[in-house]
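Side project, low priority. Logging it here so it doesn't get lost.
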Amino acid sequence: MSNKISHHDRTRAQESSNAIERMYITMRHLFNRGFYKPMGVSGETLRESLLQLKPEIYGSIGEEKAELEGLLYVVDRLPKGIEECTFINLTSDEGYANSHFQPIIPPKRRRNCYRIDAEQMNIEITRGRSEIYDILTHLTFVFIESHKISKRVLIDETGNTTRDWKKLEKAVLSKKKLTQEEREVAISHTANILGRTFNEILIVYDQFALDTQPERLLHIVYWLGKLAIEEIINNNKRTVTFSPVLRERLGHHIHGEIWSNNIKEILYKNDLLERPIHIISANMHSVMNSLFAPNALKTFAKKKSVFELYEAISDKNNQDLRNKVTKEALQKGMIYIPDSSGTNIDVQIFDTAKIDFSTLDIEVSEDFKKAEKPVIFVMDYAFGEQAYETIDELLKPIHFNGKKTHLNVDSISIMGKAGILEGGKGDIMIPSAHIFEGTADNYPFKNELSKKDLEGHDVAVYEGTMITVLGTSLQNKEILKFFFNSTWNVIGLEMEGAHYQKAIQAASKVRRSINPNVKVRYAYYASDNPLETGSTLASGGLGTTGVKPTYLITRKILQQIFN
């Protein structure tokens, strides 16, 4: 009997992995073709695959009722107003920044979008293929949801609609601010339209609201439904296009090359290009705070434990504390390079020769103090395949004044967020290899960080293989269970590991443009456990849970650099 069950489970996992592969091939095909209609014949494979997958993040996508948490997750990553647009145009960086168009930046994804007119939204793609996959998957979800709405409100082929819909329309189009009573009436009609309870809508209502648009949920539901009705009644289908320039540029590392050349030029001007260098891919605060907070916030730090200090700095109400630390860092030689290349990856450069080690609360060996002082180079997180593009360009030798200079890279450390399969939010994962999803491609490496380096601080630590997935929004329980229970021994999933490792391996082992024995460190902290319902990314952010693991990892990386 047990044989049958495992066979059945496995086929569901196989179907899912097949669906993911189909989605990728289809997205690449549509991109090469230049345009497609998500709800037309061309979008059919994407819709069917997504409905077959039923990813965790999109909750009840396969059911008749609307999915609210998934919708919230997606609208935070798409530009405000996209629900009103029939034409969505993915472009390269084509100069809109120098026009009268105001950039619209989604709250949870740094990308520039421009509303061209009432019907068209342009989304700028500067972070490579992963970004296109991300957007198309989200749009497919949104359009499937929009057709659920139209199905519930259309009465006949001529376009007559239910009373609920007419009432929602009236509330949304009313120019005046809604009273509490009017809002609740509108919510009651919306609940009917979405197949949800009044209470369910009430719970998420404020999470959708913006200061400029308190009734945003009503607005989104109305416009999604309205455009779906137009598609059905007038065959006026929404269209996604890819600009010719985007199609020509993609995959050529254009933004990564500009980014990397700019950085090397700044290193050269500051006489740091030939010094030993430690590259860290992390966020823009933990290294700076670990190096400068104890001194910048002396009196404040006396009353607190080190992790309480970091929590206080991370609290969004304590801008003044953050300003003090940044000011101290800039005075002690930090160079901050805000991104101007379109990669959306900011950089901080720390010259350790200018750091007073007596103020640090991280141990520093005597040998380090005597040796040539290295440069610590911190880059913000890359997105998916962009990790390969940026590291690949960064590790290439550079020509200045007719002289070829190889970067003297001592170590490369990657700290990131990842989904965990055993354990929960805030736990730490130490990978021993990355596997690329959908293939058997695997990248084993010697990780300088080990489980025992991070144990003993009340944070659970797991060691094992990690899967680099094509997109977080495509994982479902069956695939994750298969990873977890298979001999691959998978502890978590993220989007960049294999891409980073591919670039590091190429530069150190094949091209020999950096030291073949470069030290490599990878550590991730868990943003969610997608196997436990309610612990997916759509269940909200980490809050202060993320502070401790972030700083534990950061401090351990710095400690290894200083020793």
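Brief comment: The longest helix spans residues 2-33.
Revisit when time allows.
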